[in-house]
Amino acid sequence: MIEVELRGWRPDDVPVVLAAFRAPDMARQAARPIDTPAAALEWMAFWGFRDDARAFAVVVGGEVVGNVAVSNIDAHDTGWVSYWTSSHARGRGVAAAAAIRLAEWAFRERGLFRLELGHRLDNPASCAVATRAGFTVEGVERAKLKYGDVRHDVERHARLATD
């Protein structure tokens, strides 16, 4: 498996964030456009060091190539995992390695018990990442996500601290 490092986002990472969100598949994932340095800094600040979330820049060979995060941490010691990689870093196992590292951190450092994630059914690459990172399929949530005027079914995966 590829070696990844997780670290906090820094202001000098703005070009990476802007480049990532220029890709059409990434642009539709953002709640609002991330197309200016100010918007990229706002995106990074949103993650910050909140009680209910933590995001990490994913670094391979000294280069920031993605993001991995746990959010919506609740009173049941459950969190929601998300990840993305820059277009040029895809298909190399980066996202799966980052999700594994994030899960280890979340279970050890945050004391979480359950991690969940979901992907649109039309995103088999994300499904492969989740499976390689040890997240078990739990079922399909119908019409869970809405992008524009289109609703998408989502396959839910979970990983427990005891897995």
TrEMBL record:
GO (cellular component) term, any one: cytoplasm
SUPFAM superfamilies in UniProt: Acyl-CoA N-acyltransferases (Nat)
GO molecular function: protein N-terminal-serine acetyltransferase activity; protein-N-terminal-alanine acetyltransferase activity
Entries under Pfam families matching the protein: Acetyltransf_3
Domain N-acetyltransferase: 4-161
UniProt protein name: N-acetyltransferase domain-containing protein
Organism in which the protein naturally occurs: Planobispora longispora
